[in-house]
């Protein structure tokens, strides 16, 4: 009996030990997974933002590398490696403004704090975690809001038998809405509304309304955030005596207008009696101006045709041997998008391993040519050309001295990847079709907006040193690129 009980206990202990070993094995064999929040993070301008990011399974963090970045891995927003923060090659606008919550590493948390958030910080951030040979990433969207000043109400003038009242407020983001109301909370329709945006991208709004006698004399104007409903309001009161002068003022205004019209008629008459000779001179000067304008227009058209319509239109086909394993190419290799998970394909020398890039199958060593790229954009993207000898493994810097000439959307602006810093083109809209033009002998790389028929940017002339130049594409989350023809 005692021996039998002992054997049963021994078997139970062995079963428990086997289960623990099996679970540990399963834990270590589980792939690395990085997860962000289910929706965007919204923060008021001037406050601190916390971008959540978690990874699983929880492993030893001794050799772990965590990088938060915007469009590309370098320069980065924040990097943690070999147990400490890495400040080299950090983006200038984030220096001294970021902090990784290291206390949460042991529980799988790599949250990033950004201090004193500004409007330029809004956009997508990528949380990239590398542990040994495994890596994964997640995208976190940061939305920044700003609450403006209390509305300033002003009585402007008499108009249409009533009093024109304006309501102004500035310092908002995103664009707010202006509402007028009576004492019962009923909305009143506005006469006009104007919106302007300053150099800091903050909105200023002004709305006008005409109040007439017989309306309730207690009114209010308030400016409201569209995102969170936060609002600032001002109430005002107009007494009866203000309305007494409304119609007499209009009569006086009519008399002034009659006088002004009479003066204009006299001025036109005096101008016409100056003689036919002066009229001919004016017509001749106008003709000269029109001719100069036409010559200038023809010169611009010739310049556009010289660089926007090269001699040879080439058919670009994407090279699957160079595509990052996280990219999915169409069957005809004419379009590319990000996949939900990395593909199980061999890591050959031609393939990009960290940066989600792909090259065209055919390269160029001479001639002038162009191709077009159609963008279905819900994330980031970059297109251009690169030399055959560019770096394809590990972290890559997309700059001309590294062999890349490219453009794409930046932080709130269109940008070109120039050196030492990117060039932001605030006047260029986010084009949905980009033309890439290459003049190999001259060393010219140019980009054009097919949507608007205007040039975007031309890089400084360079030498490709006799090396083959390939079409190059970087694909962000939620983006699909298609090459034409």
Topology of this structure?
Blueprint: H1 2-29, E1 33-35, E2 41-44, E3 49-51, E4 54-56, E5 64-69, E6 78-81, E7 84-85, E8 98-100, E9 112-114, E10 123-131, E11 134-145, E12 152-159, E13 162-172, E14 177-181, E15 187-188, E16 192-197, E17 203-211, E18 218-224, E19 231-237, H2 241-244, H3 246-272, H4 276-308, E20 312-313, E21 327-329, E22 335-338, E23 357-359, E24 368-376, E25 381-387, E26 404-409, E27 414-416, E28 423-425, E29 433-439, E30 444-449, E31 454-458, E32 469-475, E33 480-484
Parallel strand pairs: 2-11, 20-24
Antiparallel strand pairs: 1-4, 3-9, 5-6, 5-10, 6-7, 8-9, 10-11, 12-13, 13-17, 14-15, 14-18, 16-17, 18-19, 21-22, 22-33, 23-32, 24-29, 24-33, 25-26, 25-32, 26-27, 27-28, 29-30, 30-31
Question: What features would you describe in this structure?
Answer:
- There is one protein chain.
- The model is unreliable at 21-28 (pLDDT under 50).
- The chain has helices at residues 2-29, 241-244, 246-272, 276-308; strands spanning 33-35, 41-44, 49-51, 54-56, 64-69, 78-81, 84-85, 98-100, 112-114, 123-131, 134-145, 152-159, 162-172, 177-181, 187-188, 192-197, 203-211, 218-224, 231-237, 312-313, 327-329, 335-338, 357-359, 368-376, 381-387, 404-409, 414-416, 423-425, 433-439, 444-449, 454-458, 469-475, 480-484.
- The strands form 7 sheets. Strands 20, 21, 22, 24, 29, 30, 31 and 33 form an 8-stranded mixed beta sheet that branches. The protein has a 6-stranded mixed beta sheet with strand order 2-11-10-5-6-7, with no helix packed on it.
- The protein is 19% helix and 36% strand.
- The chain starts with a helix and ends with a strand.
- By secondary structure, the chain is an alpha+beta fold.
- The chain is flat and about 105 Å long.
